[in-house]
Amino acid sequence: MCYEKKLGLTGAQIQTMKELDADFKKKIIQAKADHQIAHVELDLEVHSGKVDEAKIRAAGAKIVASKTNKILAMIDAKIQLLNLLTVEQRQKMAKMH
Fold this sequence. Notes:
This protein is an all-alpha fold. It contains four helices and no strands. The longest helix has 36 residues, at 11-46.
């Protein structure tokens, strides 16, 4: 935690941040796996020898959904982090960036 001293984080905040970080990492690992699986499924449909537009579009939609889930996980993690900080800590953080 590089901001621990700069922001004056409490022990409880640090512990919660560690838990949030672990949860975020799990979500990103799952999102990446889902994304790769969706690409495999798309490739299977594209190279099946048949043109089933509905199946190809559905496989493409899975790629979009997996990417969206990854972005939403990042946004959720940032919101959770900001909600964990006090107003003063958020102001300090804003000045650092």
